[in-house]
Specification:
heterodimer; A: alpha+beta; 8-stranded antiparallel sheet; 16 strands; B: mainly beta
Chain lengths: 306, 439
């Protein structure tokens, strides 16, 4: 018989509420190692807190379930069963289906098994660039096509890892959005660490979103006015290596195991769902200096910081 | 570094994939969705409805509303139900041949020409057909699939069908087992069918004179069938399937409304008798299907060979190609089907008035004749919006080529000429079929 994930613990945290100009309530909390906030265009503070609580709960639920840092996550559970088939729950199955489709449509550029490259590449601003032999050895354990995945049954070969980090945050925004949209008709915006989605413009006009400069001073480099829809940003923030005056970005191509040359500092994409926007931003980064062409070809609204 | 896809194709696929992710997990990661009975029903069950309409050169019209619902369980099980209501009306050939003289027939409910409420006349040279043919059918079916263990599934199903003159109940059971890394599926199924035939105006005595209105009570028939199937995933793009089936029907297998013309030596119609078919029919068939597909196109080739104890042997070959456009949101699928069958041993378009029909089997039903048919069809499908709505329009046009069997060629040329319009077993000649699928 194949094993089934028994479920993990519960993750919680604290919420704090502020009133912002224009009659907005802003509730902030921390999830997925990022600052998060929910803006609701509503005067009732208690209600705003309750609504934001739904978002936080969902973000924490997804973090607990898919974090690669927790030993009670479904990811840790799968890693504990490498080499033998296991049956995953419907939500994980849907995420695996999605990851598989992204792997196929990007011809291997987007790959949730590529996380082990972190063992070779430590983007700490230092000059420790790994040697090719180390990278080549890791490449033999990368490739979603080496994983057997059929309906709800998964067989992860020994030595391989799954990492939902590349889609988890955007997925959490969309899931939380659906929960909030089902019970709240007031304008709201959900922002989980810079990936965000809004249902409609607030009474004051538009949602003003600042995109931070990924490197230097964390000041807003761009201000966007958003009415509704989703924005996701892929950026290399402080994560890079510098050797012989070559700056290696933290965007690694799973097919070569090496950083993408000339990747933009950050790519922000607008789309109807955060999952879609996030994937487009990630794929654009992987296109290096072809990022802009790629996004234009796909007809996606975008903002690129070089 | 550039992706080898056309502009925006990737994005359309991504939109579809995101929608699939967010809708599947939305219904499954949440417990007990609220929203009342209908809301729950819509959330947990996939409902589909379809409406089909046939028009066949003024012959038969059908309207077939179909409602189906299915529900998937997390353990891989599934329950589905469907309800169909058909109504057919128009004219239907009665089996008699065109004649040089005008012919008069009574509708099936009649117990004599004198008391018949409705008679119909057929002009010289025209194919006799009952112009008032109408039938309605309501059918309800259900199936339940449950996983026995990881690689084995059992399906139990049943169907009840009620027509004005026909009641049918079917039970079926099947077991499927996956092996070879789920690349191979072996399945075995059996079914049992019990039918009651209750013809309008009672059952005519086989071989009796049409004008005698010699009728008897209700009839029944039984059928059993078995299927052995093998499905093989050859590679990511190629799927092959082989099915072997056998079935056996016994009981009343006549069409109670079909008659056979009796002709004199000069080819003049002197009368009609009711048809008479053997009471047992056993069929065996082999079906092979290959389907290859990529992201933008797929092709299927299927071949079927059937033989039965009535002497009918048929071959079917079908090719269909499907092209996806606009990021798999639309497709167009042309289909060509070629069908050929040999006549049943007892098929005879008419009977000489010198033969005594006391014990022989005879039918002039053109579905038992030797013929081949070529059917072309084209199907167009599209996504109405991002995820929920599916729509499709199908149009089919069948051209049939009727080949008169040589052993019947000696009958009067004026009578045997291809003026007969014959319906083929699968599909309808000259029919334009429109099917609208709404979400």
């Amino acid at each position: 018989m194949t094993a089934q994930f028994p479920g993990g613990g519960t993750l919680t945290g604290t919420l704090s509420l502020q009133e912002r100009p224009g009659g907005l309530c802003a509730v902030t909390f921390s999830a997925m190692a990022s600052p998060c906030e929910v803006l609701v265009d509503i005067g009732d503070r208690a209600l705003a807190l309750q609504l934001a609580g739904l978002v936080a709960q969902e973000a924490w639920r997804i973090e607990q379930k898919y974090s690669r840092y927790r030993d009670d996550s479904v990811v840790a559970w799968i890693h504990g069963r490498r080499g033998s088939p296991c049956v995953v729950d419907a939500e994980t199955a849907a995420l695996l289906d999605f990851a598989w489709q992204c792997f196929e449509m990007s011809e291997g550029m987007f790959d949730i098994t590529s996380g082990i490259l972190r063992r070779a590449w430590k983007f700490d601003g230092s000059d420790r660039v790994p040697d090719q032999a180390t990278v080549t050895q890791l490449l033999s354990s990368i490739g979603l096509d080496k994983v057997r995945w059929e309906s709800s049954e998964l067989l992860l070969p020994a030595g391989m890892e799954l990492d939902f980090g590349g889609i988890g945050k955007e997925y959490a925004v969309d899931r939380a959005y659906d929960i909030l949209a089902a019970c709240c008709r007031h304008p709201f915006l959900i922002n989980l660490g810079g990936d965000l989605r809004a249902n409609r413009p607030p009474s004051s006009g538009t949602w003003r979103v600042g995109i931070e400069r990924p490197d230097s001073d964390r000041s807003a480099a761009m201000l966007l006015d958003l009415e509704h829809g989703a924005l996701a940003t892929s950026g290399d923030s402080h994560r890079f290596l510098l050797k012989d005056s070559i700056r290696y970005s933290h965007i690694l191509d799973p097919r070569t195991g090496w950083p993408v040359a000339n990747a933009p500092r950050s790519v922000t994409v607008a789309a109807s769902s955060c999952t879609e926007a996030g994937l487009l931003a990630t794929l654009a980064m992987l296109h290096g200096d072809g990022a802009r062409d790629f996004l234009e070809e796909q007809g996606a609204r975008h903002w690129i910081l070089q | 570094m550039q992706l080898k896809s056309q502009p925006a194709v990737l994005r359309r696929r991504l939109i579809a994939a995101s929608c699939a992710l967010l809708t599947t997990s939305a219904t499954r990661s949440q417990e007990a969705p609220e929203g009342g009975f209908v809301g729950r029903l819509l959330k947990e069950w996939q409902l589909e409805s379809a409406l089909a309409y046939y028009h066949e050169n003024g012959r038969v019209q059908a309207i077939e509303p179909v409602v189906s619902a299915s529900h998937d369980y997390d353990d891989g099980g599934n329950v589905s139900f469907n309800f169909t209501f058909d109504s057919l009306s128009g004219s239907s050939p009665n089996g008699a041949l065109p004649s040089r003289a005008a012919q008069t027939f009574a509708s099936p409910s009649a117990q004599s020409f004198a008391t018949a409420r409705r008679l119909y006349n057929v002009a010289p040279g025209n194919l006799p057909a009952d112009p008032h043919y109408s039938d309605a059918r309501a059918a309800f079916g259900g199936s339940w699939t449950l996983p026995l263990e990881r690689l084995t599934r059992v399906t139990l199903g049943g169907k009840l069908s009620i027509e004005d003159d026909f009641y049918s109940g079917t039970f079926n059971a099947a077991i499927a087992h996956d092996f070879n890394d789920k690349n191979t599926t072996l399945s075995f199924g059996i079914s049992d069918e019990a039918d009651v035939i209750k013809p309008i105006g009672n059952t005519p005595v086989p071989l009796s004179n049409y004008a005698a209105f010699d009728k008897e009570g209700n009839k029944s028939k039984n059928g059993v069938a078995a299927l052995l199937g093998l499905t093989q995933v050859m590679n990511r793009y190629w799927l092959a399937q082989l099915n072997v089936t056998a079935d056996r029907f016994s009981g009343y297998l006549n069409d109670p409304y079909k008659i056979v013309s009796v002709l004199d030596a000069g080819g003049n119609t002197t009368g009609y008798i009711y048809e008479n078919r053997p009471e047992v029919r056993t069929r065996r068939s082999v079906y092979l299907e290959n389907r290859v597909g990529g992201a933008r196109a797929s092709a299927g080739l299927s071949l079927r060979y059937m033989t039965d104890t009535w002497g009918i042997r048929s071959q079917t070959a079908q090719v269909n190609l499907r092209w996806w456009a606009a990021g798999r949101q639309q497709y167009i699928e042309p289909t060509v089907r070629w069908y050929h069958q040999t006549a049943a041993d007892f098929f005879q378009p008419w009977l000489p008035n010198t033969t005594a029909p006391a014990t022989q089997f005879i039918s002039a039903d053109s579905r038992l004749a030797n013929f081949h048919a070529l059917t072309y069809g084209v199907k167009y499908g599209f996504d109405l919006s991002d995820k929920l709505h599916r729509g499709g329009i199908r149009a089919h046009r069948t051209r049939r080529v009727l080949s008169a069997d040589t052993q019947h060629q000696h009958c009067d040329a004026g009578l045997a000429a291809g003026t007969r319009s014959v319906s083929e077993p699968e599909g309808r000649p000259g029919a334009v079929r429109l099917q609208l699928l709404g979400a």
